Amino acid sequence: MTRLLLIGPPGAGKGTQAVRLSVACNVPAISTGDIFRSNVEQGTELGVKAAEFMNAGKYVPDSLTNDLVRSRLNEADVEGGFLLDGYPRTVAQVAELDDILAGTGHSLDVVVLLSADTDEIVGRLLKRAHEQGRADDTEDVIRHRLEVYAEQTTPLIDIYAERGLVVEVDGLGSVDEVTTRITAALDARGIALFAS
Ligand code: AMP
Fold first, then answer.
1. Residue 58 CA, closest ligand 1 atom number
2. Which residue among 58, 70, 134, 143 is the active-site one?
3. Atom of ligand 1 nearest to the CA of 14
4. What would the DSSP string read from start to end of 79-126?
5. For the chain, where are the alpha helices, taking DSSP H only?
6. Which of 2, 58, 62, 83 has the greatest CB tally within 10 Å of its CB?
7. Per residue in 69-86, pLDDT tens?
8. According to the model, what pLDDT value does residue 109 have?
9. What is the DSSP letter of 8?
10. Does residue 160 line the site of ligand 1, with CB under 6 A?
């Protein structure tokens, strides 16, 4: 019954770790970035609106993002817990998530902060751009995404730290090493883990 958030700069490896952690914690992983990308691919109204912001390295407006998460968190499969990857990213999204959770009578158990060095991140994202051809992974856009993260998302760390929810994990190293670090930190907090 775990409810967790995964926060970290673009390129810290959130997506990869989210998939593994959702298995370890036996909860669905919800990635707002993935939901936006699939809407872009399908050419939905939301996708057309979101693409404009994503391709410029900007955040999709809170109104669109919040509506999407609210409806997703009202689906039956998240009643027993969830892992949110890449949401919330702004102070207004924190307030929205608080409100959504208050409505369901649940609260967050832990916020995993995946940290990584900026130069390492730029290198990783450029590599991913070559491999996957993502439109938001050019060097200028990457640098802008990191600025937006620093301005709009880092304040969330203090908000959740004040609530005693933050566990910081170094995102550098192999995928397995990072997963082991995160699961050890969750275990130390008494979060239930399942063998995969
Ligand atoms: P990600 O795959 O998490 O790096 O997200 C890719 C892009 O989707 C971001 O750079 C934003 O443009 C958009 N996005 C994803 N999640 C959010 C969010 N919580 N708030 C605003 N924009 C978001």
1. 12
2. 134
3. 3
4. TT-EEEES---SHHHHHHHHHHHHHHT----EEEEEE--HHHHHHHHH
5. 14-25, 32-42, 45-55, 62-73, 91-104, 118-132, 139-148, 154-162, 175-188
6. 83
7. 999 999 999 999 999 999
8. 97
9. -
10. no
Token pair, residue 49, equals 């609106």
Note the pLDDT tens digit of each residue in 45-57: 999 999 999 998 8
> Residue 89 catalytic?
yes
Residue 58 designated active-site: no
Is residue 145 flagged as an active site residue?
Answer: yes
Q: How far is the CA of 40 from the centre of ligand 1 (A)?
A: 12
Q: What CATH number belongs to 2-188?
A: 3.40.50.300
Q: Are 2 and 25 in contact (CB under 8 A)?
A: yes
**Is-contact 85 6, C-beta < 8 A?**
yes
CA angle 66, 71, 72 (to 5 degrees): 95
Average pLDDT over residues 22-47: 96
Q: What is the pLDDT of residue 196?
A: 56
